[in-house]
Amino acid sequence: MQTINMAQLNKTQIIQAAQILTDSLPLGWPTLDDAMNEINELLVPQNTLLAVVENDTVLGWGGILSKYDGHVFEIHPLAVRSDRRKQGLGKAIVAALEDEARKQGGLTMLACADDEKGNGGTSFANVDLYEDLPEKIKYFSPGTHQSGFYLKLGYKIIGVMPDANGPGKPDIYLGKRLWLR
Ligand SMILES: CC(C)(COP(=O)(O)OP(=O)(O)OC[C@H]1O[C@@H](n2cnc3c(N)ncnc32)[C@H](O)[C@@H]1OP(=O)(O)O)[C@@H](O)C(=O)NCCC(=O)NCCS
Question: What does pTM read for this prediction?
Fold first, then answer.
């Protein structure tokens, strides 16, 4: 298994990456075409996209986008093939993206995790996030939502955007410091 810069992937592998994206995050990228367009837009020198590849097959991938003059890098997107989840691949991709962000001078890694499902996935869904947000962060419960993955990796909730995906459906900002104090 190798971690490869996606600029080096061939056409077949890019299609595999796009298939993983639309299968994993259909609300964001409903079709294979949408996912292909996203990858083509992201695959520019100022972004870094890394894929985990086994026997020439893409199993998962993620990217970082530079924000705030390069002090912050946002993970966008991140997806692992459904039959290969819970085997450490997501963690390995995020670690490789963090190394890359550090190399590029990043101080903070940001992951934005939409809580956008109908009934919501986390304890932030369908509650008033303007009311005592610190208390709600303290007792945050991710359920099976992907924010649980980032919390496992040491990320902390650093903010929310209430109603980002419709009433009661927030975006959750998770951050990690990339430098030692
Ligand atoms: C989120 C995702 C990338 C995680 O990838 P993965 O390869 O399954 O994750 P890993 O196996 O590396 O998991 C690392 C740790 O997080 C845990 N974990 C994984 N998904 C989790 C979840 N949804 N909730 C809580 N913990 C989770 C694992 O159990 C593991 O814990 P451990 O170190 O104690 O064993 C994958 O589930 C995915 O592609 N989901 C759909 C797309 C998505 O939600 N992307 C993120 C958008 S913000």
Answer: 0.96
